[in-house]
Specification:
Radius of gyration: 18 Å
Bound molecules: ribulose-5-phosphate
Structural class: alpha/beta
Number of strands: 13
Number of helices: 6
Strand content: 25-35%
Helix content: 25-40%
Low-confidence stretches: none
Mean pLDDT: 95
Length: about 230
């Protein structure tokens, strides 16, 4: 395991390691995306290497997860090769008191929702800054859109009361492109009162592939925090 000195990174590492510790030998494991999940993937690799964990298979949620799984020696399978996922570990951008989430800060929410929803147990790994009373209060809601439909989808979102903006990449040189070759619209809603309804309404707009609301999917949230300068879970 890498040695971190920044308390924020140590905290992410601690929740990642704690989630990985819950995985049992022989499991099929959904591998999420993001900086917190990256520590969980690394910890799974460490457990495999030490012999503490045997015979797991990973189901990646992104190109990033594929790269990390290969780096840490986790064998990968596709959804066509398996009939269940035992446990998925993934990060989130916001978590409400009902364990509903906003995800997609890494533009990976479409594959994440497929894999995380299929898991018998879905474990979310976050720091305490991600906990909110109402979804949408700190983070824009990501919506993955087929490129030719960006303009009509944005108009439809405005009619729903959202403020959409196309997600741009580094130095705003061009839009962010997802692993599926699509674009991401980030939407500000003043308040998301009914995430279950909004999730369905957005996905019904022609051209939308998937949005970042995860409702009723999470089983367990592991929260890292910094108390008196010390990271803890
Ligand atoms: C990627 C995601 C990530 O899980 C989410 O953005 C959290 O990432 P991090 O752990 O780096 O804060 O949804 O699409």
């Amino acid at each position: 395991m890498s040695v971190e000195t920044d308390p924020a990174k140590i905290m992410k590492q601690q929740v990642g390691v704690a989630a990985a510790a819950r995985v049992q030998s022989g499991s099929i494991v959904g591998l999420g995306t993001g900086s917190t999940t990256a520590y969980a993937i690394q910890a799974l690799g460490d457990r495999l290497k030490s012999g503490d964990l045997k015979d797991i298979k990973g189901v990646p949620t992104s190109f990033q997860a594929i790269v990390l799984a290969r780096r840490y020696g986790i064998p990968l399978v596709t959804l066509d090769e398996i009939d269940h996922i035992d446990v998925a570990i993934d990060g989130a951008d916001e978590v409400d008191p009902h364990k509903n989430l906003i995800k997609g800060g890494g533009a990976a929410h479409t594959q994440e929702k497929i894999v995380d929803s299929l898991a018998n147990q879905f474990i979310v790994v976050v720091d305490s800054g991600k906990l909110v009373e109402h979804l949408g209060s700190t983070f824009l809601l990501p919506v993955e859109v087929i490129p030719m439909a960006v303009t009509p989808v944005m108009r439809a979102i405005v009619k729903l009361g959202g403020k959409p903006e196309l997600r741009m990449g580094i130095k705003k040189a061009g839009p962010v492109v997802t692993d599926q070759g699509n674009l991401v619209i980030d939407v500000k809603f003043d308040r998301i009162d009914n995430p279950a309804d909004l999730e369905k309404t957005l996905n019904n707009i022609p051209g939308v592939l998937e949005n970042g609301l995860f409702v009723g999917v999470t089983d367990l949230v592991l929260v890292g925090e910094i108390k008196d300068g010390q990271p803890s879970i």
